[in-house]
Amino acid sequence: MKKKKYWKDVLHAFTISFGRTLSIVFLLALGAMALTGLKVTGPNMQNTAQEYASKTKMADFYVTSDYGLTKTEKAELNKIKGVQVELANLTDVTIKHTNSAVRIFSVPKKISLCTLISGRMPKNNAEIVLGPSLQKKYRVGDKIVFSKDKAKFLRKNAYTVVGFAKSADIWDNSTMGSSSAGTGELKGYAFASEKAFDSAFYTIGRIRFDNLSNHPYYTDDYDKKADDDQRLLKNKLQKIGQTRLEHLKAQPLAKIERTKQKLSELKENIEQAKRNGVPALMIAKQQERYDQGMSSVRASENKLSQMKKPTYTIDDRKSVAGSDGYGTYKNATTSISAVGNVFPVVLYLVAALVTLTTMTRFVDEERLNAGLFRALGYTKRQVISKFVIYGFVTSMSGTFIGILVGNFFLSPMISDIVSKTTVVGSEEIGFYWSYTLLTVAAALISSVLPALLVAARNLGEEPAHLMLPKPPASGSKILLEKIAFLWQKLSFTQKVTARNIFRYKQRMLMTIFGVAGSVALLFSGLGIQTSVSGVSKRQFGQIIKYDMLVFNDSR
Predict the structure, then answer these.
(1) What stretches of 410-493 adopt beta strand conformation (E)?
(2) Could you read off the pLDDT of 14-69 as tens digits, one per residue?
(3) In the chain, where the domains are located
(4) Alpha-carbon gap, residue 143 to 336, rounded angstroms
(5) 78, 103, 79, 75: which is closest to 89 by C-alpha?
(6) Rounded to an integer, what distance in angstroms lies between the CA atom of residue 37 and that of residue 409?
(7) 392 and 490 in contact (C-beta within 8 Å)?
(8) Are 507 and 340 in contact (CB under 8 A)?
(9) Phi-psi region for residue 380, left (φ > 0), alpha (ψ -120 to 50) or beta?
């Protein structure tokens, strides 16, 4: 019977002031939602992107050369332990009658695989697959025609669209990087068969290192090992450059030697003709041929002597083809996690202050009942437990709601803002015990702990004292009263208000920090919005002042 009365009183605490209960529940729900939502968004996006990079076997590095790439480079690079190399072609073209630049890749076979959205992959050199940015303008079965002057490295300039696919290398569908065609900015990309290209060499080499495949792209381990691999790759390419130069010179040198041999025979014939008394006019023509031949040989030798080693450029995932989609995505996930370290702190600080004030008032209201329960034989611990249970149930209820909303609503909403224009797609929701336990701990500290402290401080008196009204807080003079000419000008209500502000310091601090925290969040949000909205104007108004880029695309 005694326990039944106790639990009935505990239950009554939740219903006697339902508004107070809901205020704590929703305040803690807001804090839990912000903490959980902001903290899990980064890992969710990172895991989603890592899965995409792994599924498509995204290259770690991209190699280009001013002389192009051949199987010579591939054979030498394959000698590096734990490396995979694939050579491919690409060229920038413009859609006929427009300035829209499109980059056409040869279909990848084993590295940086494209992901088919709809349709099928090309089966011959007259078919093409377009990227997502061109999906609104074309459909499967349509014809796409490129300008002939820009499609000089393609066997055809007209193709049949057979599908749409996403690239593993260009992550952003709106900002795809610079181009050597059109306006200088890529408006789309496409994939064609390797036979569609008319080139004696390859344009780009995609490289994957086995030692990087086990490290997620967003970790420090990946960056550290990638730096080591890039140095190894750079040293290897420097040695390959000399081999490639000798290979490039070999055929012209052989041709020069054959020409010299013929000219040497011609010289002997001229000398023989002179000795045999051949007329000077036959001989003059032969001498002219010889002189022209030697002049051509010297010119060829001079040209070969001026040839330099091929220059190789190594790009990582962030700098490939001028596309910043990968880097932007990576930085965005880091920034969101950083915001998650600040915003929830303010919310939980406000929650702790509000809970402290609310529980103080609640304990004061229940002071008589607490004294009655103590007089009936209930222990101090049982009386205090009522308020601890109240704080625990309200905080855990709010925390549970906040965790669900943060995981399944706030996190996907934030992720979609960042990834809606990327090839990565919507985030895959994961569950993280560490963040859940952190949220629970924050709720216990901000709600249960204040309830325990307030109840222990105010209900530790004897039952007889608890059954008496709580004596009012003692008044005292404030600093403002010592400034006579100001104090005398205040009305009675203003004097009472000034005294009460410092008389009830807890309420004063709650108001100050609560308003300050709310304004800080509002100001931060508006500040971020203003900062982001001004980036493009500063970038293209103050930093980049040109209207057009000119490239030499001759090979």
Answers:
(1) none
(2) 777 788 888 888 888 988 888 898 889 888 998 998 999 999 999 999 998 888 88
(3) 2-54+323-360+387-449+466-471, 61-216, 229-320
(4) 43
(5) 103
(6) 8
(7) no
(8) no
(9) alpha
